[in-house]
Design a protein that fits this description.
Layout lengths: L4 E4 L9 H17 L2 E6 L9 H14 L5 E5 L4 H13 L3 E4 L3 H13 L22 E4 L6 E6 L3 E6 L7 E3 L7 H11 L4 E5 L6 H11 L5 E5 L2 E2 L15 H6 L4 H10 L12 H7 L10 E2 L2 H14 L2 H14 L7 H11 L6 H7 L1 H4 L7 H7 L5 H13 L5 H15 L3 H13 L7 H8 L1 H16 L2
Parallel strand pairs: 1-2, 2-3, 9-10, 11-12
Antiparallel strand pairs: 4-5, 5-8, 6-7
Helix pairs in contact: 1-9, 5-6, 8-10, 11-12, 11-13, 12-19, 16-17, 16-20, 17-19, 18-20
The protein binds one RNA strand of 75 nucleotides through α4, β7, α5, β12 and α10.
Length: 466
RNA sequence: GGUCCCAUCGUCUAGCGGUUAGGACACUGGCCUCUCACGCCAGUAACAGGGGUUCGAAUCCCCUUGGGAUCACCA
């Protein structure tokens, strides 16, 4: 009874994008679900494109998503000895050979092949030469010319490849670095990865990797090729699809819980359920409920799901997520109890944290700026008296809670024989500067007596001055 | 072009031989109401096409069409 070991193996050549995040999530969920081990491996064998910033960007994104790993991070660039050991073995056993053909020669080979309508690939010039190791030589895999290689994929099913479609691909470059297909297999073997979950854009690599497993005499892992995430134009997500970096969604005010919920549901389903907490995802995730067809990333639905998560969250848990947005708007965030109250009034009307911060503006401004239209329409002389009395009565309250506040309004409506609507809008403008806000009793309660009285006074002055 | 994958409302999807083809987002109407939201109710909207298999196909097989992926000393 072997335990599950999964890995996420990004290459640090840019930020972590949506597709990568989902691959990481599925691997993580599967490991957590099965009580297995999740490993992080950085595939930085491309010296030219790998950067330190990209590694950091990947860490940042995983941290935001709260996807943690049990082993690693391992860097392929630090495991060269291991790859070389395997190379020696493969060459010694006749599974690989040195090749001294130059890139120009390879290119010429391809041209010739294309011209005759054949497949453009390595023609095997050095395959049987038994060349010794030499400066600048690459190592190629001696790929079988006959037969077939089969993938038994848990999501895609049975996939057959004719071996003559494959060519003698490079295992180690002339600069001594291993290539992706080789390093990935050596690592997956040595790290004892049991289940490889990755995007289905890797299907074409899989037969090569299976051949390598066989040459190495190792048992095959379980393959699960999950469908890709596409942009609105149905092509692979890339820069031109707008925000594809995971952290961009954080900065747009998405909740990590909502984001992983959305990512999980894109390609995986659990009956009709749409909303999942992180814990539910771990409990319910399984590979056999992963679909086969690619899905389009729908930002509108993501926002709706985010709204659901904001609404379902406890205000106290939202505080730390909202604070950065409040701070970037220039507000003081010392008083967390106050922020908690603010959040409670805004949860049902914000789709994102950024939006919530915007809507929270009036709670933090020291001098409320009136929206011209709203002030003109509602702060009129005819409400001067009711407003004045309201201010006085609210100022006189000893227990400033929603119930007491509502009582004040009830009395006011009676004495002036007006409906709540007549007085609520002027008060709303006085307190928030606009005609749109959370419920009037709620905002009075949260703002607190001092702010409310001061703002009503300001409104009275404004009316008097008209 | 070769190879491989995929195909249910606009989008995400349920469905795993017999359903009025369900849900969610979006959209449209209504209710609620102190504004805006939330919530609730209702509605529009899909099995790509053609052949089979079967008493019976969205479900199984084949073909066509469409879309995607991949063809490196990148991962």
């Amino acid at each position: 009874m072997s335990t599950v070991r999964t890995r996420f193996a990004p290459s640090p050549t840019g930020y972590l994008h949506v597709g990568g995040a989902r691959t990481a999530l599925f691997n993580w969920l599967y490991a957590r679900h099965t009580g297995g081990t999740f490993i992080l491996r950085i595939e930085d064998t491309d010296q030219a494109r790998s950067t330190e910033q990209s590694v950091q960007a990947i860490f940042d994104a995983l941290k935001w998503l709260d996807i943690d790993w049990d082993e690693g991070p391992f860097y392929q660039s630090e495991r060269l000895n291991l790859y070389n050991d395997y190379i020696d073995r493969l060459v010694a056993q006749g599974h690989a050979y040195y090749c001294t053909c130059t890139p120009d020669e390879i290119e010429a080979m391809r041209e010739r092949a294309r011209a005759t309508g054949a497949k453009p690939r390595y023609d095997g010039t050095c395959r049987e030469k038994g060349l010794p190791l030499s400066e600048g030589a690459v190592v190629r895999f001696k790929s079988p010319v006959m037969g077939t290689t089969v993938i038994e994929d848990v999501v895609k099913g049975h996939i057959v490849f004719a071996n003559d479609e494959l060519d003698d691909f490079v295992l180690r470059r002339s600069d001594g670095m291993p290539t992706y297909n080789f390093a990935a297999v050596v690592d997956d073997v040595s790290m004892e990865i049991t289940t490889i979950i990755r995007g289905d854009d890797h299907i074409m690599n899989t037969p090569k990797q299976i051949l390598l497993y066989q040459a190495l005499g190792r048992p095959l892992p379980v393959f699960a090729h999950v469908p890709m995430v596409l942009g609105n134009d149905r092509t692979r997500m890339s820069k031109r699809h707008g925000a594809t970096s995971v952290t961009a969604y954080r900065d747009m005010g998405l909740l990590p819980e909502a984001f992983i919920n959305f990512l999980a549901r894109l390609g995986w389903s659990y009956g009709d359920q749409e909303f999942f907490t992180r814990q539910e995802l771990i409990e319910k995730f399984s590979l056999d409920r992963v679909g086969k067809s690619a899905g389009i990333f729908d930002a509108v639905k993501l926002n709706a799901l985010n709204a659901d998560h904001i609404q379902a969250a406890r205000p106290a848990d939202l505080v730390r997520h909202l604070k950065p947005f409040l701070e970037s708007d220039g507000w003081n965030t010392q008083d967390e109890a106050y922020i908690k109250g603010v959040i409670a009034t805004l949860q049902t009307r914000s789709k994102t944290l950024k939006e919530m911060a915007m809507q929270a503006r009036f709670y933090f401004e020291t001098d409320v700026a009136y929206d011209e239209q709203a002030a003109k329409k509602f702060l009129k002389p005819n409400v001067l008296e009711p407003l004045k009395q309201l201010k006085e009565q609210l100022a006189a309250l000893t227990t400033f809670d929603e119930k007491a506040i509502e009582q004040v309004f009830v009395q006011l409506m009676e004495t002036f024989q007006i409906k709540l609507g007549k007085i609520a809008q002027p008060v709303r403008v006085a307190l928030t500067g606009t005609s749109v806000s959370p419920g009037i009793f709620e905002i009075i309660t949260v703002l607190g007596q001092a702010r409310v009285v001061a703002r009503l006074e300001k409104a009275l002055d404004y009316i008097a001055g008209r």
